[in-house]
UniProtKB/TrEMBL annotation:
Domain spans labelled Lactate/malate dehydrogenase C-terminal: 172-335
EC number(s) given by UniProt: 1.1.1.37
GO biological process: one example: malate metabolic process
UniProt similarity note: Belongs to the LDH/MDH superfamily. MDH type 1 family.
GO MF annotations in UniProt: L-malate dehydrogenase (NAD+) activity
Organism this protein belongs to: Sesamum indicum
Root EC class: oxidoreductase
Protein name: Malate dehydrogenase
Residues binding substrate: 106, 112, 144, 178
Amino acid sequence: PSNPQVEREHAILRQDGCRAKGGAPGFKVAILGAAGGIGQPLAMLMKMNPLVSVLHLYDVVNSPGVTADISHMDTGAVVRGFLGQQQLESALTGMDLVVIPAGVPRKPGMTRDDLFNINAGIVKTLCEGIAKSCPNAIVNLISNPVNSTVPIAAEVFKKAGTYDPKKLLGVTMLDVVRANTFVAEVLGLDPREVNVPVVGGHAGVTILPLLSQVKPPCSFTSEETEYLTKRIQDGGTEVVQAKAGTGSATLSMAYAAVKFADACLRGLRGDAGIVECAFVASQVTELPFFASKVKLGRGGAEEVHQLGPLNEYERVGLEKAKKELEASIQKGISFIRK
Ligand code: NAD
Ligand code: LMR
């Protein structure tokens, strides 16, 4: 029997490039880990995004229920669900953007690196699927530890001969979202008016907010700098502790993931001046990966911005960040090369 969702998707896929029904631009997006704490609200927000014409929801459990639920929303995107490894290829074929929040979250007392043993294998398998089924897609990697999972993904793509460094982006947007919120609180401003660059990586001291470069321009006392830097670096742990064993940030993460994915899609569409922070292949420091501002365009992270002038506090922070990052990056690379 014919399935109207599948027929509508096929009609969209037959249309040229990113043009969806009615001539509006539309992209095909897959979420891997779509039934999880991040995956579900992320799927809901992506279904609300007018730039998305096809939304594929993949998980190893519960994706049919999440898909049925989300598919009743009266927005434009066609939603289809995929369950289990044997459906990974169908979930990925034809995708422009793949967002990956698959993997286990922290419990109190754990570091993100404690997730490595389980999540490294999950990311490896999913990236092998991407290399096979949608090697040109932009990848937004959320699964922790991001400082190691991005190097893992890069090695998988290199091995498959599909690696395009511009298209692999570790999602550090939640650090920026938190930094904007906490800084706005101190300054007494609306967080929507504040922009804080956060560079380095996505764990503890590797998260380096550049408070000297906040927009609008402002200054902080050394106590404020100390308080804000620490709060931004420990934002994830603050949520893990408050959730008391039931998981880590999911709702603010889904918000941040959609903010970042939307920026990637606007870049793909050809919009000018899209700049966000992300953890990418980089020559900004001596490390092979580093988070900084990147310009998003049709090819992904088309330009990686330099860090700009740092103050003494930030220079000390940068040295600490690089030390930890180097080990985490190497751990990811070795996982595939071993
Ligand atoms: P969760 O346990 O609620 O959900 C994870 C989902 O992944 C589950 O539905 C699970 O079935 C699925 N999954 C497991 N193995 C899979 C596989 N092989 N293929 C597809 N799906 C698979 O966890 P969560 O709270 O959604 O967090 C997910 C990940 O995101 C964690 O690693 C967490 O640390 C990370 N995270 C990162 C950031 C960031 O800023 N980058 C922020 C928050 C959480
Ligand atoms: C976060 O920053 O909230 C995530 O990386 C999840 C975590 O483990 O802290």
